[in-house]
Amino acid sequence: MLDLLERQPQFPALHLERASRLHYVELFKTLVLDRALAPIEVWDKALLYRAILRERRAAYPPAFAYILTELEHCVLAPGGPSGDDAAAAALQQRCPTQADADYFVYMVKKYYIDNAVEGHVLLRCHREPQAKDLLFSNPPPKSDEEVQAAMRQDGAPAAAVGAPARYPPVEALWRCEENLPLLKVLVFAELNLLVSENPFVKFPQAQAALTRPYAAEAAAADATEGQRGGRHHGGSAVGRGRAGAQDAVSLASVIADRRGHLLAPIPRNTAMAIDGRAGDVRRLQQRHHREDTAAFHALLKRDGDGDGDGAAYTAYADWFYLNPRAVRAEERDGLHRQGLAALRLYDEASRDLYRVSYAEAEAAAGTRPVEGENVAPSYLPTLPHFVALVAKDRHVSYLQHVLLGSDGGARELERRVGQLARALHQTALEYHVERSRRVHRQKVNVAACLLDRLVEDEWRRFLQQAALTRASQAPEAAHAAEDAVASMARRIGSPRKFETRILDESGFATDARVEDYTRWMAAPAAPQ
């Protein structure tokens, strides 16, 4: 989850004081909820982190003040039966109780828990039947009397020794307003209470329980051993081997499940042959597992301190070496690039499996689009495209940005430009349907006529006003003080109508007019 080896002193924490509730909820769902196997684990982790932060608050820097304030605002329901108090009963449906929180304060004080790695061991073991043996720590845990006395000294009531049996629904943690401080504490601690240490130095008895092989692998191993014992020791062991093989997940059933239901089922003799080699496959997997562990060990030793003896790495367990986030950033980025290159090579090879023949490739490369074919636009036409197509006209652009200010005339011009662009957009979308094309073409003509009329009226009004202003002055003064805006408008010339412009094969408006197209398509005439 985090690159623990890059947690340098200049970056001591990941602060969330600027995060909103949305950010906390999304981080919680990504970091905690998606990785939890049961809702009770989420509540356990939240209350454990709250207890750790409360117990170690004196050791945290001033930058943690905002999360310690949220710690005081955590809402807890009163413990025990609520009786006739409806408010307390309703609060128990949304928030954990004070007794649940005191239990984790009790566990933190008893086992000296001060980070999330040791807390993870506690969360995995505190509900087990042999929890007292698994959590025997080094130094030894405090006695119950010492913990209860310490809690009474802090003003807390005596905590129950048993783990919480029930919690509110897990949705209440991120949906109820009362649990927002607890949610902030959970996300902050999930990001900042991780340390790079080996928890099994403190809890040596828990290593075998937490790093045991998966249940399916253990069952398969027991089944294989039972079958071997049955061959050597008689029928009773054979019966035990068959029972173990029925309980275990066989390799043939896994392969058949991966093949899917579209392929024929594996024959019985083939399945028996596959299951006979399952032990060899498992040993090969374990060998690769050990080789990967050794490779990561060498990687860490090579990029560690300069002594190269690797003594500092012998205290860590396999989970540390097999964590890809625990590798240095340079090696991680290099391995990332190698992995991407390998995936790219794999994709190219999978595409090359279905290569076309030389004749098909030559025919595909030899075809050229001709006029009248392949004239459809390569993209789906959008409304902003047609708005820009209309607004880039010289007269429309000059009116919109120079002659007309922010008055009603500019807004009316913008509205009519939008009407014409919308009509052109609908025409281009359904240009392949002849009936719709005719209807949309009429709509384009109406919108273009309205725009042309507005442009011509505004243009004429401006030129007349400029001419009157010039005529009211003396000729020398009028020539000297001729307005640059009016002179540019005269040089642009009279507006060109949108109504008479033709469309291309795809329904896009062009700058050509009907009379231009008629002149271009006319037969060449002999010079007079």
Could you characterize what this model shows?
The chain folds into three domains: 4-210, no CATH class; 215-304 and 315-324, no CATH class; 383-521, no CATH class. It is 60% helix and 2% strand. It is built from 26 helices and two strands. The protein has helices at residues 21-31, 39-55, 65-72, 86-92, 98-111, 116-125, 131-134, 144-153, 172-175, 180-192, 206-210, 215-233, 235-247, 251-259, 268-276, 278-302, 318-321, 329-352, 358-366, 383-391, 394-403, 408-429, 434-471, 475-480, 484-492, 514-521, and strands spanning 501-503, 509-513. Strand 1 and strand 2 form a beta hairpin. The termini are far apart.
Task: Set down the secondary structure blueprint.
Elements: H1 21-31, H2 39-55, H3 65-72, H4 86-92, H5 98-111, H6 116-125, H7 131-134, H8 144-153, H9 172-175, H10 180-192, H11 206-210, H12 215-233, H13 235-247, H14 251-259, H15 268-276, H16 278-302, H17 318-321, H18 329-352, H19 358-366, H20 383-391, H21 394-403, H22 408-429, H23 434-471, H24 475-480, H25 484-492, E1 501-503, E2 509-513, H26 514-521
Antiparallel strand pairs: 1-2
Helix pairs in contact: 1-10, 2-5, 2-6, 2-10, 3-10, 5-8, 12-13, 20-22, 21-23, 22-23
